[in-house]
Amino acid sequence: MTRTLIRNGTIVTLDPDIGQLDGADVLIEDGEIVEIGHGLTASNAEVIDAENHIVLPGFVDSHIHLAQTQVRGIAGDWSLMGEYFEHMLGNITGLYRPEDMYLGGLFGALEKLHTGTTTALDWSYPNTLEHGERAVDALKDAGLRAVYTYGPPGDDAATWWYESDVGLPEGNIRELYDEKIRDDDLLSLALGLRGPDFCTDGTARSDMELARDLGALATVHMGAALWPSSIYGEDYQGFGCIRDLLGPDVNIAHGNHFSQEDVQRAVDAGASFSSTPEVEMQMGHGIPVTGKVLEAGGRPTWGVDVCSNINGDMGSQMRVGMQVQRMFENQEILEGHEEVTEVSITCRDTLEMATIEGAKALGMEDEIGTLTPGKRADVVMLREDDFLTAPSHDPIQTVVFQSDASHIDTVLVDGEVVKRDGELLNNLVDEEFDRFVRSGRRLIDEAGLEL
Description:
Layout: E1 3-12, E2 20-29, E3 32-37, E4 45-49, E5 53-57, E6 59-65, H1 80-89, H2 98-114, E7 117-124, H3 129-142, E8 145-150, H4 157-160, H5 170-181, E9 187-193, H6 195-198, H7 201-214, E10 217-222, H8 227-232, E11 250-254, H9 260-269, E12 272-275, H10 277-283, H11 290-295, E13 301-302, E14 305-306, H12 314-335, H13 347-353, H14 356-361, E15 379-383, H15 395-402, E16 408-413, E17 416-420, E18 423-424, H16 428-431, H17 433-447
Parallel strand pairs: 1-4, 1-5, 6-7, 6-14, 7-8, 8-9, 9-10, 10-11, 11-12, 12-13
Antiparallel strand pairs: 1-2, 2-3, 5-15, 15-16, 16-17, 17-18
């Protein structure tokens, strides 16, 4: 048995039955949290000093395309329906070789760990089975807890997008799951669905049914920009042909243009929503779905989305997503000729959307998302004695507003330390760096982009 004792920290458990404990300890045995309290002891335990640290659950990113990491910094001025569809989905993605999938996914996953995200849903466009295999190898080698999402191949946009009648490659998906994912405790499978926005009704239903047959999460790009209405016009019916298939194993990415009625239907069915506010506001997806989900009695989750545009830090999504929703609610009050006297969505709300709500969306709420005995030890330690974070009067507000990735001191995934004293412990950061950079340069050169 391996034991780790995190000692004398400010423990923000996010578990309502345990709450916040000051100067407390977390005992971990074989990757499981077994006790949280004061004055804990354990023989033969590795002791991690958490004095002057906030100890909290690892962040959960419910929607990100990790393989785009080596082409970061190209999409900062792109719109979704203009340059992104043309250059990324219609060009660059088709140029990926299996090793590009590996290198992008590896450094994307390492960035997640470095910035305090211990779990991510990696929405992937594998051109072949080998592409998918190398993408999964990257997640394994990084040590990230992940949901690998097998989406449509990225080498032929005309076949796989728009009004596609071609279903996801079931044989490849089953083989990848059996060979690479089934027996790995840190990995699970999702299917990246196009939904009726991007394929025929029959294809949308068959892909959804395949996900359910596999016992996999179904995550669907839907309701972003005006793309659906440009096809269906006034007949656009939101979930359309998959409405009756909604359930807790369905995650909707974006959903900006769904009606309140559609959002209510999804929330009532137990489906989750992933909002990626920073990308959505830039690229023209529309107003984030946050307010509609909250009005429906649900809670959205946060995601980064495209690494070709922004960095992988979940702290930005927590802040941007919360402040944008506050802005809309405040403006509504002001337009009613009243003063804003309180804000509704709180710092705790947005932190929970980046932790326990993300875990729920991925079907992992019994494993991660809070620091609770019996759950797996995915833990982040954040410095509260830095001149940018001190004094920490309210640890949750410190996490949300005063900290950045530089304050993430220590990260554990399943009880294993993957970052210590501000540095990742994975040797691949240095060993694969040059190949990573060359991969990105080749992709940009072959795509013919002028930057």
